[in-house]
Every structure is written in C-alpha cells, then in structure tokens.
Design brief:
Layout lengths: L9 H10 L5 H21 L3 E2 L2 E4 L2 E4 L2 E2 L1 H24 L3 H19 L3 H20 L4 H31 L3 H4 L9 H15 L7 H5 L5 H22 L5 H19 L4 H22 L2 H32 L15 H14 L6 H15 L3 H27 L11 H19 L2 H4 L15 H27 L7 H42 L10 H14 L8 H25 L2 H12 L12 H21 L1
Antiparallel strand pairs: 1-4, 2-3
Main location: membrane
GO molecular function, one term: oxidoreductase activity
Keywords: Cell membrane, Membrane, Oxidoreductase, Transmembrane, Transmembrane helix
C-alpha cells in the first residue's frame, strides 16, 4: 500500500487545479489556498524518502524524491503559492487564471521533487506550457509577448530533451542512467545542451529577453506567479547539471547581477523594472551554485528561498498599484505613500529585503554568497556581486521615490483585508528569516559543512556601505535616470530575427505542404480514374499512371470475383460519406448568413495536375478514400 509520503506533492495541486473550474470562485480560491498550505506542511514534515518508480516510455520515472534541496525549494514554492492565490482573489482574477496558475505550480513542484532527469524534463515542459497559457489568458499585448515567450521556452525544452537523450546515449538506455549523479551528466555535449536550457530559463544575458518582455504584460496575478517559479526551477536544474560547481557559471551569475540592475535603473514600467531584477537576483543564486562549495550552494538556495518571498511581494505591490491607478509607469502617478500606508509598508519591507539591509532575509543569504566568493579566492566575483548590490539599492530607491514620495498624492482605494493579510504574512517571513536566520539554515544543504556569522562587524559595515553608496548614487543621478526610457537591450535584434525567421519558416513549410498536397491530390485522382476506367482510356504515359494501372490489374488478375470495381467504389463511397457527415451536420447548424462565405471558401480551390478543382476539404476526402482502397487491397492480400 502506498503511503502519503509516496504521493508527489504536485498531485493534490493538479487535482485542485481541475476542480476550481467547476465550483464557485470563492470556494475555489479558498480550497486552493488550503491545498497549497497542506502541501507545504507535507513538505515540511515528511521524512526524506525516494518514492515509487512509475513506468514511462519503457523506462522508470522516480516521481518523488524528498531530500534537503527539494525540501527547501518545495517549501517556498508551496507557501508562496498559497499567498499568491490569496492575492489573486483580491485582484478579481477569474477561475481560468486560477486553474492555469495552479497547473503551473503543480508542474514546478513535479520538476523539483522528481527523482531523475526524465521526471525533471516532464515538469520542465509542463511548466513551459502552463506559463505560456497563463500569459495568453490576458489577451491583448500579452498574446504577442506570450508567442515570443513560447519560442524561447520551446527552444529551451528542446535543448533539455536533447541533452538528456545524449546523456542516455552515452551512459546506457536504462533507468539507472536517469538518476541524478554527483558527477552530473555523462558527456560534455549533454552538459552543454542541458546548460543551454537552464541558461534560457534562468535569464542568462543574451537569452533573457523573454523575461522583461513577458512578465509586465499579463494579468497582475499571473505576473506574481511567474516571478516565482520558472527562473527558480532553472536554478534547481543548474544545481543538478553542475552538482560540483562550475566557475564559468559563477562568473556568469556575477555579471548578471550588474546587467540586470543596470537595465532595471533605466525602466519606468514597474513590472519591467522588477523583471530585470529577477535576472540580477538569479545571478546571485547561480554564483553560489557555480562556486560549488558547501557555503556557496547553501547560500544560493537560501537566496532562492528568500527571493521568492520578497520579489513576489514586490510584484504584488506593483500589481496593487496598477489595479488602483490603471498605470504601469512610475511617472504616471505619485505620492501613494500618503494615501495607502499598507502598500507602502509592504514595499518598504520587500525593498529592504532585496537590498540586503540588516534585519531582513536578503541580508543573510546575499552575505552567504559573497562570503563563499571570498572563501573560494575569487575577489573579482566578489566585487561583481557588490557592484550589483549597489545597483539594486539605486533601483529601489528610484521605485520608492517615484511611486510613494514624488508628486501630488494620488487618491486610491486602500488595500483590502485579503491584501493586508497576504502582505503581512510575507513581510513577516522576510523579517523573521532575517532575524531568526537559524531556522532557514537548518533547512539548507549540508549545514554541518559550512559556517557563517551574518551579523559580524564586517558584514554590517559592508551592508551599510552598500546602502549609503547606493542612495547617494541615486540622488546624484536622479535627473539622468528620469530621462531614461528603458534603454536598448538585445531584444532590438532578437525580436525581429525571431519574427522574420519564424515567418520565413512557416511560409517555407506552407509551400512545401502545398506542394505535397497538390501531388497527393493528383495521385489520388489518377488512382480513382484508373479504378473507374480499367480499360486504360485515361491512363497516361507517366510512370505514376503506369504503376497504378499495374497494381489494379494485378489485383484483378487474382482468383477472386469479390474484388472489382463495385468493391472499390463501395469503399470509396463509404469513406466519403463518413468524412462528409460531420461537415454536413455543421452546415445544417450554420446561420444562413454564414453559408455564402463558407461555400465561397470551399470553392476556392487549387488546380491539380488532373485539371480538377479541389478544396482542402475535398483533397482530404480523396486522400482518405484512397487510404480506404489501400486498406481493402491489403486485406485481400
């Protein structure tokens, strides 16, 4: 009998995702919150366990593997998901948004708790699908952005699958080869392929344009969910890909902290600013994972845990402002702090957390990654991380100044009790993990193998210097920053390339398909003509006609009177009747005003080589009829 510890935490989340579509909105949101809180409790309490292996594609997938790493990621995924559902209820998001968001969370949980590469791939691909749907649900500009998002993640998913296949090819096509190994993947090629997929989902420089392009576009509830799961699952996958670290990855992370913070400074769109800071903060996580030391890995996952909380709270603050003012841009409203103290307080806690102010959770985890760079003897990496921290202070000084202080007070409705409850719970967690950091340390990998003292004099001096330098830099460049309108990122190149490239590819495929269709139609009509005119009067000199004639004659020469024109005609008539029946049923239900355009489209037919005009519908009918004839011949033989 399977115990509760063997049930993947993704299962109850997926079940409630299906149920919420069929129950009243309030009931659905309440049930979803309860399920996610229950899943979080399960993750916290269940002992370390490797669950059952399920047959899939001739292999066995380990669907549950509760270990130190999956536990710390799963805890914040589940707990934050409950808060995000509560915020979604306050925004008025409908049940479709809730259902797709829950499927997205379920996919992320499945990926993190999967016990092997195949399970991770399945969760990875499901996340890409559900997150794309979550973006598309909002319509408008989100559809185009979602298309670009889908292209990037289709590429990433393809690379991931190719990498796992290459790994299996090198290590043997069996379930044992799928298990996570401390040495990573079997070959350099497999590592590069999976590393490319991780780089896309993590928003590595050059592969990141989907992030600031997509996250500002959908419903504000969708942005809150999106900011928490895709990039953080990529960090988890980076750990699985480079379990012993990779110094190149660490330096990529270090540069990301500066790049993301610099571009965030140039933004006036709140969610675009926050999206660039996802890239910057993921840089700290990748730096820790890349260093590979016990302290670096622990710091990377500690920062992942903390970042989900304060970055999610920042997206909630931005969403609450957008819902109340109708504006995304910081220069379209002002002085909200005078009219909405609850939103201001939530912003202050989140901003102090992300800027690593002492007393808040970001101070602890960011300090761990910086310490790991010092222990590893990488001073350049340390200075990259510190420079990114200064840029972070400047960015959120800008956000706070324009949103809550500058200008005339904008009258907006106060936060609802649900918003205050969600803001308060997440803000409390940010403060609690900054003060009682031992609780987080107990969850991190290999706590006995590393040691750090967050509130040492050196750490406090360093944090104070970063805050002071960042604030002074913002004040001295405020007029310059006000004139910036987003800056030129590489999407100025990648977006046109993606647009024209996919258009060229689709047109090429369409032309090829058209040629194949015309060829198939011509061949089909020759076959029908040959069957109906066995005397050969309509058989031409082309090889295709002669081969068809030979086949028909060979069939007729068999010692059976059951195979003849009547049999072939009957199969063809039956096939055509079966195919036309749904179309005829649809036509009977069409309004009269639609029948004319429908018939015009149906009669807009390409001309086949036989001179007969055929619509796509008729082409399919003929092809299916020919297949029916072939089946009849095959049954005879």
């Amino acid at each position: 009998m399977i115990g509760p510890e063997a049930i993947p935490p993704a299962v109850p989340v997926a079940l409630i995702a299906a149920v919420v579509l069929f129950v009243p909105r309030r009931v659905g949101y309440g049930a979803a919150t309860a399920v996610l809180l229950g899943v979080t409790a399960w993750v916290a309490l269940v002992p370390a366990v490797t669950g059952p292996a399920v047959p899939f594609l001739g292999l066995e997938v380990v669907i549950v593997d509760v270990n130190t790493v999956s536990r710390v990621v799963g805890l914040v995924f589940g707990g934050f998901g409950a808060g995000a559902v509560g915020f979604g209820y306050a925004t008025g998001a409908d049940r479709r948004h809730l259902s797709v968001a829950l499927w997205y969370v379920a996919a992320a949980m499945f990926a993190v708790f999967a016990g092997d590469w195949l399970g991770l791939v399945i969760g990875w691909e499901l996340m890409a699908i559900m997150s794309t749907l979550l973006v598309w649900l909002y319509g408008g500009d989100a559809v185009r952005a979602g298309y670009r998002y889908a292209l990037w993640h289709a590429l990433g998913g393809g690379l991931f699958v190719a990498g796992v296949v290459a790994h299996l090819h090198a290590s043997g096509l069996d379930s044992a080869a799928l298990q996570f190994d401390q040495a990573g993947l079997a070959t350099t090629g497999a590592t590069l392929l999976v590393g490319g997929a991780v780089a896309i989902n993590a928003g590595v420089i050059g592969l990141h344009t989907w992030l600031p392009d997509t996250y500002p576009r959908p419903h504000v509830m969708a942005s809150v969910f999106l900011c928490a799961y895709t990039t953080k699952t990529a960090v988890y996958a980076a750990y699985r890909t480079f379990p012993e670290g990779n110094l190149v990855l660490a330096y990529i992370g270090g540069v990301m902290t500066i790049y993301g913070a610099a571009y965030a400074l140039a933004q006036k769109d709140m969610r675009r600013l926050l999206s660039y800071h996802i890239q910057a903060q993921v840089g700290y996580m990748l730096a820790g994972i890349g260093l590979g030391s016990a302290l670096g890995v622990a710091g990377g996952f500690a920062h992942l845990f903390n970042n989900v909380l304060y970055k999610g709270l920042l997206f909630m603050v931005a969403g609450a402002i957008i819902l109340r003012t109708g504006h995304n841009r910081l220069d379209r409203f002002g002085a909200l702090g005078r009219t909405s103290p609850s939103i201001l307080l939530a912003f202050l806690v989140a901003a102090l957390s992300i800027t690593a102010a002492p007393g808040f959770n970001g101070f602890v985890s960011k300090g761990m990654v910086v310490d790991a760079s010092v222990d590893a003897g990488e001073p350049v990496l340390r200075w990259l991380l510190l420079a990114g921290a200064v840029g972070t202070v400047m960015s959120f000084a800008k956000f706070g100044y324009y949103a809550f202080l500058k200008g005339d007070a904008s009258a907006i409705r106060p936060a609802t009790w649900v918003e205050r409850a969600v803001f308060g719970a997440i803000a409390f967690a940010c403060i609690a993990l900054g003060v009682w950091y031992q609780a987080l340390f107990a969850l991190l990998p290999a706590p006995e193998a590393w040691e750090t003292t967050p509130y040492s004099v050196g750490h406090l001096q360093e944090a104070t210097a970063i805050l002071v330098v960042g604030l002074l830099a913002f004040l001295s460049t405020r007029s310059l920053l006000q004139r910036l309108h987003g800056g030129w990122d590489i999407d100025r190149v990648t977006d046109p390339v993606a647009f024209f490239g996919t258009r060229l590819a689709s047109r090429t495929v369409a032309r090829a398909a058209g040629s194949l269709n015309r060829s198939a139609v011509g061949t089909a009509w020759r076959i029908l003509a040959t069957v109906r005119h066995r005397g050969g009067r309509r058989i031409g000199k082309e090889p295709t006609d002669r081969k068809v004639y030979d086949v028909i004659e060979a069939v007729r020469d068999q010692d059976s009177r059951d195979i003849g024109n009547e049999v072939a005609d009957r199969y063809i008539r039956n096939a055509i009747g079966i195919v036309r029946a749904p179309r005829d049923a649809v036509i009977r239900w069409l309004p009269d005003r639609w029948l004319g355009p429908y018939e015009n489209i149906r009669r807009s037919t390409p001309t086949s080589e036989t001179g007969i005009n055929l619509s796509i519908e008729d082409s399919l009918i003929v092809i299916i009829a020919v297949l029916a004839l072939v089946i009849a011949l095959a049954l005879y033989f």
